[in-house]
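Notes to self, Secreted protein:
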Amino acid sequence: MWKMKQQSKMLSRIMLTVVIFASWFLAAKATPTERGTAPNLNDFQLRPATNQAELLDRVIKLDTKLPKLGVKNILEQANRHGEPSTSLETCNSDATARRTLSSASYCFNASDSGKIGGEVEWMPQGVTTVGDAKTDQYWNTKQPILISWYDKKPKTPTNTDADKIKGARVTFFDPETAKYQHVLLVYPFINSFGNVSYMSLRTTQKEGYDSLHAGGIAWYGNYLYVADTARGFRVFDMRYIFDLKEAKNGDITDKNQIGYHNGKYYGHGYRYVMPEIAAWSSVVNRDSTKTCTLNAGSPTFSFTGVDRSGFPHLTTGEFCADKIAAGDINKSGRVARWPLDGNTGQPKLINGLWKADAAYRLPISNIQGGVSYNNTWYLSRSQGASNGFLYVTKPITSTTGILEIDTAHYAAVGPEDLSHWPKADGSPGGLWTVSEHPGKRLLSTIEQERLSPLALINIEKDHQIDIDTIVTDFI
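result:
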């Protein structure tokens, strides 16, 4: 009797799985003409910001006013301690709904983790690693992981810096010690008195505007590319991280002020500030009222990554919510690949423009992160308070098309951006992500060996589901 009940329970779970996933994967397996239209590569073009030269000039001026500190020393002096996982057990079971999902994981300290259901100021979003930045996967003697956050706590905008909108920050995390340090990202400008100053990162660089979402970050060479949702990228340089604590004219005690005031430099209480040195914007302005509702037009930059297979590329993608897509694949979002100059770490240009050389329609909505490697895309999908999913697509070699899901796997609750850390021999390695929900936050990686060809679900050409595969992953 017990065995029969267990079998019945197992069958019920299998049937529930079929109901939940069948519609997603049937859409993913349909023919391109049934599923939508491929993106137009002409929609994916970026130009340098009109104030590109001025941005760099302002940073050079800051360099004469403030001392700098390198990444290695920042990590060695890091002021926060995280918690590593033990073996395959996660350091926060709430973040994985008590499933063993990752090869390794790290948790932030209590103030950064937040409480389930509690109000928080900062939300983690993007992730990148030294595996993106350098071929040898070391920055001096360190192997840093970087995480971006945006300031979400509601504020009442005013016309002064005291509006306390802190913009975006990047965490430098040392996986060897689990120590980490927050660095505030800032936008440099010349104030009304002719002094070089800076403000927090905003959607528009004026007081009263919201914090930049920083939904994805990509580190390549000396440069950190931060996704600017409506425009393209903000760019930062690892060689320009300023240390206000060591500055004779710096103040890290006042958490309200930022920039230069009465002879001192402030950073909302942060020790380090990292100024924007460049920016890239879509050639055609995006119509924000039609996000995810058009088959064409300038893309949204929701997440980003680095692809080191072949010639180096940045990857980008659009988050399109389920309620907007409503099952229409043409509203599910797009991803693209942008060529980089492997020698300089800067965009590889054609006639002064940065043009994507590949773009694809996403097969499903609610994608929070995506990165390609060896013609295969890896996509993270959020699912509210439940486990998210990690999708592996079929390889695609055309320059445009529609991605097709090959396998699907459980992810943590609220997975965000993805970063691929290749093995030393260049073969596929681990996928890093960060989960955002307060009290369920987790920095984690999963090795691609664990993403077997027959994983969570595999729908064959005749749309029959492999029951044994489902049982293996669900029980």
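- Residues 1-33, 156-161, 454-475 have pLDDT under 50 and may be disordered.
- The CA atoms of residues 122 and 200 lie 14 Å apart.
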